[in-house]
Specification:
single chain, about 450 residues, mainly alpha, Growth Hormone, Chain: A, 2 domains, 16 helices, globular
Amino acid sequence: MARGDAPRDSYHLVGISFFILGLGTLLPWNFFITAIPYFQARLAGASNSTTRILSTNHTGPEDTFNFNNWVTLLSQLPLLLFTLLNSFLYQCVPETVRILGSLLAILLLFALTAALVKVDMSPGPFFSITMASVCFINSFSAVLQGSLFGQLGTMPSTYSTLFLSGQGLAGIFAALAMLLSMASGVDAQTSALGYFITPCVGILMSIMCYLSLPHLKFARYYLANKPSQAQAQELETKAELLQSDENGIPNSPQKVALTLDLDLEKEPESEPDEPQKPGKPSVFVVFQKIWLTALCLVLVFTVTLSVFPAITAMVTSSTSPGKWSQFFNPICCFLLFNIMDWLGRSLTSYFLWPDEDSRLLPLLVCLRFLFVPLFMLCHVPQRSRLPTLFPQDAYFITFMLLFAISNGYLVSLTMCLAPRQVLPHEREVAGALMTFFLALGLSCGASLSFLFKALL
């Protein structure tokens, strides 16, 4: 909720800037996992970069180094680490240094990845350099994301929505870039080079957007006056307590009780600030209120990262070799997942079901574990133990539709429900805890992917 004397966001420039910054935070992860065929071809010992890059044969490239699993794990562990270290890091390093430094580091590392397309290298050193790049890029991405969320906390909630929308479209952007590279008709090496240069352009745009914010009156009003936001947020919280929630759900008993307490404590002779200032929220008390929702978030991401992309990227078309089999995985795995995941996250803008008091949410989350055996029994040529029970492409596409939309919806639902389960002054702690459990779920899923792949 914006204050009455705030300037207008002329031409929506600040909103567009945060949308592009959101896109930039998740471009690294999405461009690496979407390019799995390229990395597998290099690691399989292709003698020259001009062969087999950004394409797959009918049986799929052999994942000699467990690249799918390692790229997932080394992308998510930095997020968990910097979530734990964020309070120390954010106090020691200025915000501008964190954001600009992270963007520049990501740009340089992606430029290195693009340059390696032109360099002939044996699989071992190439794997080591790539894994180091993945780890460092995602470490800087974790710092960047946390710092930008800190800035968004001082701005109207609409800008957080735009930022999250940009993040949601990063995967679609990467999948479309892959398809355009494959369909461009140029030689494979040029195609791969163009693919990895694309995120470099995206990061450059993010840098320009961030540098433009201090020159925009609207952004300067919110970002340059952070200390004064506390009073504004206090007034906004009182106003919100007297209203129903945006989704039509009435105020909870906790909110009503707090409203009555605030009203009773208002006395003419007393100091206005002291009685109304809530005590410092306890992390343990907040955790007791949201533990079930947090556990659901962990389980959602554990299921998702345990099979995507480690298992799903190995699924190939059961049809005869041709254009469809070449484009099957980029379209049906990555593009389809990102579109349906984005749609699932968007559904929470219209309704929230089940609500925070329902026990149906844990049941829906646990049902997603069924996707693990379903994907493992699809058409994966590199298998030695499990049979193929769902060879047709239609099975995989159906599973992916349900898998992706349920991931997006349940992630967004749990993130929306957690603040509703606590008092207004505890929401910041609840958000920090949910961010930690989000990173924990991603790391658990990435670790489990090694086990599930070994069982194939």
